């Protein structure tokens, strides 16, 4: 999804997204550790700041995620793990908040909308940032 479509979905203007290299390396490492040579996806959280249409993604962490291959309506994302990790990150960098989430794979599946809806419970103004790696 490009920046213009993302901005139209949220009702806010999003002009620029900056993603630090460590975030990209962290996502690739997560995929290599968990899902390499499989058809499984990995999901994680993007942390950073947003101000005046600019989102600065400075950190990320993996979140345990599983999905049923046979029934696309069945999936599991560990909310408790996410909340614990976010709490720890907030102690280190209080200004960072959830600015998006990532998932690996060749395309965004329909359940990605459900995952996004789950993350908007933590921040209703969450922009749909989807880094493609």
From TrEMBL:
GO terms for cellular component: proteasome complex. GO terms for biological process: proteasome-mediated ubiquitin-dependent protein catabolic process. Pfam families: JAB. InterPro entries: JAMM/MPN+_dom, MPN. GO terms for molecular function: metallopeptidase activity. It comes from the Eukaryota. Residues 17-133 form the MPN domain. This is MPN domain-containing protein. It comes from Triticum turgidum subsp. durum.
